[in-house]
Design brief:
- Helix content is 64%, strand content 14%.
- A 5-stranded mixed β-sheet has the order 5-6-7-9-8.
- The chain is built from 14 helices and 9 strands.
- It has 3 domains: 134 residues; 118 residues, GAF domain (Beta-Lactamase, 2-Layer Sandwich), CATH 3.30.450; 135 residues, Histidine kinase-like ATPase, C-terminal domain (Heat Shock Protein 90), CATH 3.30.565.10.
- A hairpin with a 5-residue loop joins strand 1 and strand 2.
- Helix 2 runs parallel beside helix 5, helix 9 runs antiparallel to helix 10 and helix 12 packs parallel to helix 13.
- The protein has 499 residues and is of the alpha+beta class.
Amino acid sequence: MTASAPPRAARRSLSGLARRIREPPFWRIQAMILPITAAHVLLESHFISIGVLDLLPAPFQHVPVVLYVVPVTYAGLVFGFEGGVLTGLWCALLASVNTVLWHQHGFEWLTELVFILVVVGIGVVMSVPVERERRQRRWAEESNRQLRMLNDVVQATLRPWGMEQSARSAVRRLVEVLNVRGACLGLWRRDSAESVVSVSHAEDHAVAAELEAAVGRVNRGDASAEHHADLRHVPLATPGLQGALCVIIGPGQELTKGQHDLLQAVGSQLAVGVENTLLHEQERELLESYVRLVTQAQEEERKHIARELHDGAAQQLAVLCRGLDEVAETTEPKRGRELARLRHLATSTLAEIRQFSRDLRPTLLDDLGLVPALEWLVTDIADRTGTQADLIVRGPVRRLLPEVELALYRITQEALRNVDRHAAASRVSVSVSFEADRILVSVLDDGDGFQVPANLGSLVSSGKLGLLGMQERAQLAGGVLTVESEPERGTTVTVDIPT
């Protein structure tokens, strides 16, 4: 701050006076004082005829001075103790002019001055309880605003928003509550100095830019941030983050201790909320990575088992069936019937093994893609259960990433398995829509339906993991699973995956 700059108190006083002059009550007070002062001057100067004055009681000449109580008291009611004192001094100054001009004999001036001070003092004293009540009311209102502000910040950090949106909402609310020119929150990681959140709110873009630069200086420990006349900041620190919350106050404004404490509380709550969000995201990413690795290992194991069944047990059973045929041709009819029964048993076992192998890992999916694999699923459920099933394909068919095709296949497979086991449906339809930037697969049946819970995770407690597994697979592929169903109105399972 330069030596030519006015002191902060003087600037605050001038700012307050300029603000008062613009308010209508200020001019109403002056309108009261003016006629009282005029009447006082007229009576004291004997501008009115002496004969008329002689007809009035002697105390009547003091009536104008007594009337000064009205504007002084009104000023105290409107502007508080400060307004009552300033208005009282102004009234005393105006009344003292008459004392100097017309009360020079003996101690008349002293009597007149004491009378003026008593009258004005009564008005000032009457404004004291009013000022006390005003301060208590302002303190209660300010406390309520701060509590609401803290509650809003806590709620914002708990909402399922992004970190930046929650912080921006809290900073905007802070500017409103503190009535400052702008505010800015900046948080960085301790281990890598990577910026996590940097949000500001101000009417003026220049103020917002200034705040963002100031937050950076505070975080770097730059001492220049301490000497900014209108900048107020609180440093923030958590086990994983560091940063600052800064505000720029207006001309003549100063933060109270309660407002500074609010600034610290809001900043600390935001820092803790952001760190909790980061930890939650980190845990979610670790969990997703774990689930992804488990799913990949599961699919690899299925692929391995399916190959072993196809190349091992299935081939051996096929050889056994051919051997039984050869033996049956050279044996007696009685033994031939027994061999035929054994051959039928071996053939059934071979079919079941091949079916099991295809369920574990269909070679169609790897060799030909999603649509042929889904055609096989639809045909299989129609042949095994007698349910009318069809496949509808929209858009130009194309190959997708292997993990996307596998996720869509498994979700459709589980949905059709649920139709077979639980729906008692007479018709099921699988729809595949290839769009420019996404693919949608829907499984619709006309079965019994059910009441879909708001959160599919609640099905875990009842042991119903099918829908939850479908949801997990969709999320791992970057998509969204939607389940729509009502009792007696069928079920629709839709998965939407961006491509």
